[in-house]
Amino acid sequence: MIEVTNLHKGFNGEEILKGITTTFDRGKTNLIIGTSGSGKTVFLKCLLGLFTPEQGAICYDGSTYSELSEEQQRDLREQMGMVFQGSALFDSMTVEENVMFPLMMFTKQKKDDMLERVHEVLNRVNLENANNKLPSEISGGMQKRVAIARAIVTRPKYLFCDEPNSGLDPRTAIVIDNLIKEITEEYDITTVINTHDMNSVMEIGEKIVFLKNGYLEWEGDKSQIFKTDNKAVTDFVYSSNLFKKVRDAQIKRL
Ligand SMILES: Nc1ncnc2c1ncn2[C@@H]1O[C@H](COP(=O)(O)OP(=O)(O)OP(=O)(O)O)[C@@H](O)[C@H]1O
């Protein structure tokens, strides 16, 4: 579980996050949504320990980040997996080498043990017969599976995903969403996903945090998001192509 209290973060005197308070439960897919420039990426980077907030606290299963020693902060960061936008695989490394990379960086395991773990996670993300391929030789959906395998290979307690669906066709996007949800439940991970995608909200939005201009404007789950009368949220929901059609049909019937 991650508990965020009164988080403030700015740059060069401009405040970007303006006092965010929320919680992200373990074993759940938590989504951060909001309009462009609302501070979603800055928030995710604060959760990853990449940005230091000016005020407020982030507490990971009882450990408040700012109260930890540098060594403890490093240990905590090693318990975090990250799926980057666009997958961010190493082009010159094979699928197997990409997934093994965090194990080589952060553990002192024997090569055979590392390989066994790599094959285990590649199987889990249903990626067979691609171990020796380069990223350029596999599809975008397969690259995303490799990125997920690489993010979970060290058995992280926290998984952060930045726009995991960007660049994927809608069908593949749903498969990837559900894979992340299944992994979150199976391994009891606290997962936080930054997304623009209303399909993801519908599919896996167990907790949704909506940011607007650096404020937490609304939070709830995927059933509540269609019942809220918060205008910023309804504008966002119905600006997606999928729901524009639904709304237009409703207006026509009136
Ligand atoms: N390192 C930085 N230095 C200065 N300003 C920054 C930095 N990172 C982000 N910002 C500013 O913070 C604001 C919020 O940016 P952020 O990337 O978090 O938005 P976002 O909600 O993720 O948008 P998008 O959906 O378009 O990716 C923007 O005005 C951006 O210019």
In a nutshell, what does this entry contain?
InterPro entries: AAA+_ATPase (IPR003593), ABC_transporter-like_ATP-bd (IPR003439), ABC_transporter-like_CS (IPR017871), P-loop_NTPase (IPR027417). Pfam families: ABC_tran (PF00005). It contains nine helices and ten strands.
How much is the radius of gyration in Å?
19 Å
Shape annotation: globular
Helix share of residues? 25-40%
CATH architecture descriptor of the largest domain: 3-Layer(aba) Sandwich
- CATH third-tier fold name of the largest domain: Rossmann fold
Strand arrangement, major sheet: 6-7-8-3-9-10
Would you list the SSEs in sequence order as H and E? EEEHEEHEHHHEHEHEEHH
- The chain-level structural class is alpha/beta
Q: Could you tell me the number of beta strands?
A: 10
List the ligand species: adenosine-5'-triphosphate
Give the distance, in angstroms, between the N- and C-terminal Cα atoms: 44 Å
Low-confidence stretches: none
Which oligomeric state applies? Answer: single chain
Mean residue pLDDT: 92
Give the CATH class of the largest domain.
Answer: Alpha Beta
Total of DSSP H or I helical runs spanning 4+ residues: 9
Protein name: ATP-binding cassette domain-containing protein
Domain ABC transporter: 2-238
GO molecular function: ATP binding; ATP hydrolysis activity
Pfam family, one: ABC_tran
Detail the topology: elements first, then pairings.
Layout: E1 2-11, E2 14-24, E3 29-34, H1 40-47, E4 55-60, E5 63-64, H2 70-77, E6 80-83, H3 95-106, H4 111-124, H5 140-152, E7 158-162, H6 170-186, E8 190-194, H7 198-204, E9 207-212, E10 215-220, H8 231-239, H9 241-253
Helix pairs in contact: 3-4, 3-5, 4-5, 5-6, 6-7
The structure holds adenosine-5'-triphosphate.
Residues 11, 16, 34, 36-42 line the site of adenosine-5'-triphosphate.
Pfam families: ABC_tran (PF00005)
Organism: Aquimarina algiphila
Domain ABC transporter: 2-238
